[in-house]
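Worked example

This section walks through a single chain of length 65. The input is the sequence exactly as stored; nothing has been trimmed or padded.
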Amino acid sequence: RRPSVNAMATTCDSCGAPADDLATVRRVYVTPEAWDSEGRVDVVDDAEQWCFPCRSMYPHQEVEA
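Given that input, the structure is written out below as tokens.
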């Protein structure tokens, strides 16, 4: 009997989807510059596990192993 895919998969901390291609990243929040405020980039201290689609769409920093 083969194990089910869901039993082997872990979930992405960003989207919650099961994934087997997770990478450790730090979430990055980007606030664009406006006429009355400077732009800023905030990096979250806590590391998360993200799937490839989330890493390709959302700002993040890869965590070195």
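What to look for: Strands lie at 10-11, 18-19, 23-31, 40-50, 60-62.
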